[in-house]
C-alpha cells in the first residue's frame, strides 16, 4: 500500500537501500548491447522455460487483457488482473508488459497471493502476502522481507532506483508462481527491459497445501498488457533442509514454588533456521540439558536445547538459558498497580480481552517475603459485556494452594461497533453505515480503538466512496492512503507520529476523525489520536480528489475493532 509523499521519505529510502544490498548474489544481472536484440532475449528466456515443458501445459484464457487505466491513473488496489487459481503441485506463469508513472518504485506490478478471489468484506478472503516489483512487500505472520532476493543492486549509477524505475517502463515480465507440494510458494519474476537489461527478483513463502491458492496482479499508478497465462507442473518437489542456528525462549517463569515440577509454565521457544525462517516449538520438542533443582530455595538456571533440522531430521544443537528463583509457596496476591486501561467501551455481546499493560500483582510468600508475580503465572477472568464496574478475578494456582484477588474494570456501552472483539476481522471485513457529507460540511466520528497492534495497519480506516458504494479512497491513520482519490503531488499527508512507538500506543486509543467536503471536488481527512497513556498525535490527508456532489464516508478496520462513543 502506498505511503503518502510526506511520510519520511528519507526513512523509506533507507529501507529500500537496505533491502537492495541484502539481495541475493546468485541473481545475475544481464544486459545486451542493442535494443534490436530485445526480442531474441525474450525468446531465449521463453525457450529455456519451454524446455521444461512436460506436455502438461494448461493454457488459461485471459479475460482482462489490459489491467488498469492506460494513462497509469489507477491508484493502489483500483484494478486487478484476472484471478488465477493454483493447486498444490502447479506452477502459474504470467507474461505481461509492465507500465507505470515512473514516479515511485512501487508504480509497477504487484502480486497478491490469497485464499480466494478478492471480494470487499468477504470473511473467507485473506492474504498470504503482497509482493511488489521493487523488492518490498507485506503479508501474514509468515512473511519475511529478508527472503526477497534480487539483482537490482548491480544496476549501477548514483541512484539505482532511478535506473530501476526507467528499466521497468515497457519491460516484458515473466512471473512464475510455483505452489510446491512441500508447503511453499516460490515466486520468480524476470523483467526484460526495452534495452535488454534483465532484472530478476524472487521470494518464497510457507502456504498450507490443504487447498488451492489464488494469485492476481494489482495496479498502483501502473497498468499491464497481459500476454500469456499458463500452468505447468511444479519445479520444486522437494526443498533443501535447513539447520537450526539459534533458539529463543520468551515468557518463561521467573519464579516457581518450592517443590514444583513445572519450571516451564507458559514459556515459548522459537527456533531460527539458516534460511531465516522460524518455528515455534512445544516443550516436548526440546531437551533440557540443565534441569533446575526445585527442592531447594534460591536462583536456578535452565538450559534449553534443540537438535533438529527444519525438516525434523537430526542436526546441529542450538541452546539458550533462562533463570528463575525457587521460592516459598504463595500465601497471598494483591494488585499493587492497576493496568493502563481500566475503562473499556463496548457494544457487542462478546467478552472483551483485558489489556494487562502496566498491571502489577505482588505475591506474599510463606516466609512473609514479597515479590512481583509474573503475569504469565496468573489466570485473569474475562470482562463481561455489561455496563458498570466489575471485579475481575485474578488467580494464582500453586502446588499446595490457590489464591485470588480482584481488579475493578468499568464498562461503558457505546453507540456502535465495527470489527470483531476477538480481533479476527480482516481488511475491510466490516464497515460502518455509509453517511453522506454535503458541500462545505464536515462529518466527525468519535471512537475507541482496540487493536492487536502487531502491525502499524491494525487500526481504523476511513473509506470515502460514492452513494452507490464506488470506492474513492482509503485513508488510514498510520500515514497511508490509496485509491483513485489519492493523487501524487496533489494529496498532502501530514502527521506527527513517532514510528518507534506507534504500534505500542494503538490499543485503547481515543480517536476523533473529521472528514470535510471542501466543495471544490476535494476532501480532507483528519485523525486526532490520544493514546491510553495520554500521548497525543494527529494524521491529516488534505486535498483528496472526490466528487463533492456525491461524497460519502464510512469506517472500516483491519485486525482491530472500534467502538463509537458518540
UniProtKB/TrEMBL annotation:
Cited PROSITE patterns: PROKAR_LIPOPROTEIN (PS51257)
Superkingdom of source: Bacteria
Protein name: Ig-like domain-containing protein
Amino acid at each position: 500500500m502506498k505511503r503518502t509523499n510526506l511520510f519520511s521519505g528519507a526513512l523509506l529510502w533507507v529501507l529500500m537501500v537496505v533491502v537492495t544490498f541484502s539481495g541475493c548474489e546468485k541473481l545475475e544481472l544481464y544486459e545486451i548491447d542493442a535494443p534490436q536484440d530485445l526480442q531474441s532475449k525474450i525468446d531465449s528466456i521463453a525457450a529455456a522455460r519451454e524446455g521444461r515443458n512436460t506436455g502438461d501445459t494448461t493454457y488459461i484464457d485471459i479475460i482482462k487483457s489490459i489491467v488498469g487505466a492506460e494513462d497509469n491513473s489507477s491508484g493502489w488496489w483500483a484494478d486487478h488482473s484476472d484471478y488465477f487459481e493454483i493447486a498444490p503441485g502447479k506452477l502459474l506463469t504470467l507474461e505481461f508488459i509492465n507500465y507505470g508513472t515512473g514516479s515511485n518504485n512501487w508504480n509497477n506490478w504487484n502480486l497478491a497471493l490469497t485464499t480466494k478471489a478478492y471480494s470487499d468484506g468477504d470473511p473467507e478472503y485473506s492474504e498470504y502476502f503482497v509482493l511488489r516489483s521493487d523488492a518490498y512487500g507485506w503479508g501474514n505472520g509468515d512473511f519475511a522481507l529478508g527472503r526477497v532476493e534480487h539483482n537490482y543492486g548491480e544496476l549501477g549509477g548514483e541512484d539505482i532506483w532511478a535506473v530501476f524505475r526507467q528499466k521497468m517502463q515497457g519491460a516484458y515480465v515473466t512471473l512464475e508462481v510455483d505452489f510446491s507440494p512441500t508447503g511453499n510458494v516460490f515466486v520468480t519474476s524476470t523483467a526484460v527491459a526495452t534495452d535488454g537489461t534483465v532484472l530478476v527478483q524472487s521470494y518464497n513463502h510457507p502456504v498450507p497445501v490443504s487447498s488451492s491458492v489464488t494469485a492476481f496482479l494489482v495496479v498502483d499508478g501502473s497498468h499491464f498488457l497481459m500476454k500469456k497465462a499458463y500452468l505447468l507442473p511444479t519445479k520444486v518437489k522437494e526443498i533443501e533442509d535447513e539447520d537450526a542456528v539459534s533458539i529463543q525462549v520468551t515468557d518463561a517463569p521467573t519464579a516457581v514454588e518450592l517443590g514444583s515440577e513445572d519450571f516451564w509454565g507458559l514459556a515459548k521457544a522459537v527456533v531460527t533456521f539458516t534460511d531465516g525462517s522460524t518455528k515455534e516449538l512445544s516443550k516436548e520438542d526440546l531437551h533440557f540439558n540443565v534441569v533446575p533443582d526445585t527442592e531447594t530455595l534460591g536462583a536456578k538456571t535452565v538450559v534449553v536445547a534443540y537438535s533438529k533440522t527444519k525438516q525434523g531430521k537430526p542436526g546441529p544443537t542450538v541452546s539458550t538459558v533462562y533463570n528463575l528463583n525457587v521460592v516459598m509457596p504463595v500465601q497471598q496476591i494483591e494488585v499493587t498497580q492497576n493496568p493502563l486501561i481500566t475503562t473499556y467501551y463496548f457494544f457487542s455481546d462478546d467478552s472483551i480481552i483485558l489489556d494487562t499493560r502496566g498491571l502489577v500483582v505482588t505475591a506474599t510468600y510463606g516466609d512473609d517475603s514479597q515479590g512481583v508475580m509474573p503475569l504469565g503465572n496468573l489466570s485473569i477472568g474475562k470482562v463481561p459485556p455489561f455496563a458498570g464496574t466489575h471485579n475481575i478475578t485474578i488467580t494464582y494456582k500453586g502446588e499446595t494452594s490457590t489464591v485470588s484477588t480482584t481488579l475493578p474494570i468499568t464498562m461503558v456501552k457505546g453507540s456502535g461497533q465495527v470489527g470483531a472483539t476477538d480481533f479476527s476481522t480482516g481488511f475491510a471485513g466490516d464497515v460502518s453505515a455509509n453517511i453522506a457529507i454535503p458541500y462545505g460540511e464536515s462529518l466527525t466520528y468519535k471512537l475507541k480503538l482496540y487493536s492487536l497492534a502487531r502491525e502499524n495497519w491494525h487500526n481504523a480506516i476511513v473509506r470515502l466512496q460514492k452513494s452507490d458504494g464506488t470506492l474513492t479512497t482509503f485513508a488510514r491513520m498510520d500515514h497511508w492512503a490509496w485509491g483513485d482519490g489519492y493523487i501524487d503531488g496533489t494529496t498532502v499527508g501530514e502527521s506527527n507520529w513517532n514510528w518507534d512507538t506507534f504500534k505500542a500506543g494503538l490499543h485503547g486509543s481515543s480517536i476523533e476523525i473529521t472528514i470535510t467536503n471542501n466543495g471544490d471536488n476535494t476532501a480532507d481527512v483528519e485523525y486526532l489520536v490520544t493514546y491510553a497513556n495520554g500521548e497525543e498525535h494527529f494524521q491529516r490527508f488534505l486535498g483528496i480528489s472526490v466528487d463533492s456532489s456525491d461524497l460519502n464516508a464510512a469506517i472500516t478496520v483491519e485486525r482491530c475493532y472500534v467502538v463509537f462513543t458518540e
